[in-house]
From TrEMBL:
Name by which UniProt lists this protein: Cytochrome P450
Keyword check for Magnesium: no
Similarity comment: family membership: Belongs to the cytochrome P450 family.
Location (main, coarse): membrane
InterPro entries named among the record's database cross-references: Cyt_P450 (IPR001128), Cyt_P450_E_grp-I (IPR002401), Cyt_P450_sf (IPR036396)
Annotated organism of origin: Acorus calamus
Amino acid sequence: MSLTVAIFLFIVPLLFLLLNLKRCSTKKIKLPPSPYKLPIIGNLHQLSPPPHRSLHALSQKYGPIMHLQLGTVPAIIISSPDVAQEVLKTNDLVFASRPSLVTANKLFYSSEDVAFTPYGEYWRQARKICVLHLLNSKRVQSFGAIREDEVELMIEKVSQKASLEPVNLTMLLNSLTANTISRVSLGNKHSVEEGASHKLCKLIEELSAFFETSHLEDYFPYLAWVNAINGMNERMNKWFRDWDSFLDQVINDHVFLVLAPKTILIQT
């Protein structure tokens, strides 16, 4: 990379940052208590892993309602049950929407699923469909035996391996999730080493890794080009293609079962 290009890549984001800081400085908003912020990165340096412990330590000093500046993104941290009830129940419509995340936009059809789509009419309709056809009490009870069976199998695996070798709980929990989803949605029972359940487990593991990764674009939108350079965009695009293909196969299998001619065997 030439010196001119390097200087250009440094100066352009810096100019955007300075303009953003100037624009924000003209707006005086009364915010909750906040730790000392550094220029550009704000409070990101204070969120050492695991982040929930860092947030707990900060809340002990700054109170149950705290403001953190995560790069260019302001965030309000709630760490009290009473305040959480005010936010999530009493004033839930005010705080019901979701932030725009790179991973959700890339991997979930521009955040059009029920978990990540912003609050609005689309979300209400998606939630209604989900509750009526998947999460109603009758349906949940019908899946009870499957959940109990898979949990028992996982506990049995832990018991068998615990005395012989370290137990990879992440893999076992992903296997539990994949096998349960496979039996509920695909109507079959596979071990994690075979068939659709194996593919689903692999997709879940990769998805977890994407969500565990911090993306600069989430905190500094003007640095979206970084994911194009480090290969993250291509890896997420590949996962999306694999996920879309997997869902298409599941749908086609269900359609085939519905439309396939029924064979009647008559024994004489």
